[in-house]
């Protein structure tokens, strides 16, 4: 028995949408960590919620790390700088 495909569409209920975003974000970051570990790859993710809140993941502390500067522009600038150097 195969799993059925679900239709990908915007979730109408805002509370349900936020819960789904939170769960999927955690899953995405977990997959990024696994990919980084298994393949020794450098991974960077920048995700914005519908409210504009920034969520970031980096496989190296050098790129985004736990910087006290949480400005989306600063984070994006660091990412672009890192990509230019590579």
TrEMBL record:
Its main location: nucleus. GO terms for molecular function: protein dimerization activity; RNA polymerase II transcription regulatory region sequence-specific DNA binding. Keywords: DNA-binding, Nucleus, Transcription, Transcription regulation. Pfam families: SRF-TF (PF00319). The keyword Membrane does not apply. It is found in: Nucleus. GO terms for cellular component: nucleus. SMART domains: MADS. InterPro entries: MADS-box/MEF2_TF, MEF2-like_N, TF_MADSbox, TF_MADSbox_sf. GO terms for biological process: positive regulation of transcription by RNA polymerase II. Residues 1-61 form the MADS-box domain. This is MADS-box domain-containing protein.
């Amino acid at each position: 028995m195969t799993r059925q495909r679900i239709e990908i569409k915007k979730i109408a209920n805002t509370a349900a949408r936020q819960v789904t975003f939170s769960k999927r974000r955690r899953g995405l970051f977990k997959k990024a960590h696994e990919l980084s570990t298994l393949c020794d790859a450098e991974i960077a993710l920048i995700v914005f919620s519908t409210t504009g809140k920034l969520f970031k993941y980096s496989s190296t502390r050098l790129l985004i790390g736990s910087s006290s500067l949480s400005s989306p522009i600063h984070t994006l600038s660091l990412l672009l700088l890192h990509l230019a150097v590579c």
